[in-house]
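anyone else get weird line breaks when pasting these?? whatever heres mine. first is seq + tokens for prot A
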Amino acid sequence: MGGPRAPAVALGGVYLVSIAALGPLLGQTADSAATYQDHFANDAALARDVAGGIGLVLAAGLLIWLLVATRAETLEPRQPRLLELCTAFGLVAAAVLMVAAALLLTVPFSLTLGEVTGDSGIATAEVQAGIAQAGSVALFVAALPLAVTVICLGKLGFAAGRSPRWIARTAWATAVLLVLGCSVGGLVPFGAWAIAFGLTWRVPATEDPSGVGKHP
């Protein structure tokens, strides 16, 4: 059935697009409230923020799909603790990603809805900045359990003979960047790694969706 291929590639792509869309907002984490107010006064920036926030919600769902698909493909009792660890940290990462998305979407949704209804929405600069900064921090916090998940996925795939060794090795570098990056640039490699994880996943001949190599 392809296993984690589809969810991994989709996760990587959606995640990269989301981070790119949210990049300008995430890059203002240490800026003043006035800077945030200028950002939210830009309609194009609001549209990017909404798209990026929705993308994070989708990414969280795709991460859960990836966990389920990987679990189904690596149920051999070789490393049961690693499998449970991967599932646990992955679900935590998905949950925190949802929280980050909700916070990052709050101000753009409020202002967009305010334009439709004629209300001011969240107009106070300090409140806007506080909510957006909380969303940025939540996203960076999500990188911690996500780093553990990446390492576990790499190890599980290699142990099951489904992923090449270099995927397991680059998982460590990706995790280090997630943990130590604390910046937009540190978040990007995860998306690329997820795509590589999906594209290199090996499907046994008996599960080849093309039918070639199936046993009678």
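and prot B, same format (seq, then tokens)
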Amino acid sequence: MKISSALLFFISFAAFGQVQKFKINGEYVLDNSQKTGVNFELAWEEDKGKITGRYSDNHFSREGAEVVGVADDLGRQLIVNFRGDKQGARSIALITSKAGPDKTGTSVPVSIITRDGEGNPLTTTKLDAPFVAVSDVPPVPPAVKDLPDPAMIAQKEEQRPECNIGFGEIAGYCGRYGGLISEESDNKNSCDLLTEDDLSMELDTERNLTLYLSTLNELVADVPTHRIGQVPPDPENPIDVTSRTCGPLAGTRLPGDKTHCKRLNLTGTFLIERGRQHFAGTYAIYDETTKQICRYGLSLNKE
């Protein structure tokens, strides 16, 4: 796949933790016999490292597709997830540097990767793209005394007695976590976790890990869940938790009779990121009978 050098970044910046708006317009050429040209637009918002947006083009997705991603000091990674195969592709990843206003007028490196339903790369392209930044008038920052101390927040969390004894290296990390979930692999289009309303993960005071597939609501008695399993006593960090369940599994099209058992596995690390408790890891579902695998990347902040 090739990308034309006309690719431009248009960015709206705001200071002091406000939402940043980004837009990419450009054209790339698929490395196939027809040398198909793809004109695309990618627009997103970035808030505290979390990216959400929309992608559309004239080849893979005229109707548009949702974009999720993360931004940190190492750069930005944006994932376009299609609902089903689109011209053989199931997702597109765009990776670029964490450029700021000081890079206006220069070029930034961009990598574009298309993947199939199993997560295997179809095409990979690297290029330097022209970069333009447009700054909004920043709002007046709050007084320093009004800003919370991230270290104090983390310290108060760790002081919770019900989330301390027996929690080992993850003491103080109990609670509900929400944020980014991106599909890494779904070899037979078996799972639909990305279409759920509001996914979140909880580590409770009994060391149980649960994935909620919908927003908790007092009016809804049965919120669909995945019971991932229990963290062992005094665990190390990162964690690696596996459980087994038989029968239907919410958010999937895997066989639902009780002879079909699935293994649920969560691996990852609890950490403090920008003053907030954070979990980064991978969640995998494996059907023991059909050998179908669904794998998701998680980047979650404590709510």
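btw re prot B: The two ends are 40 Å apart (CA to CA). The chain has a mean pLDDT of 78.
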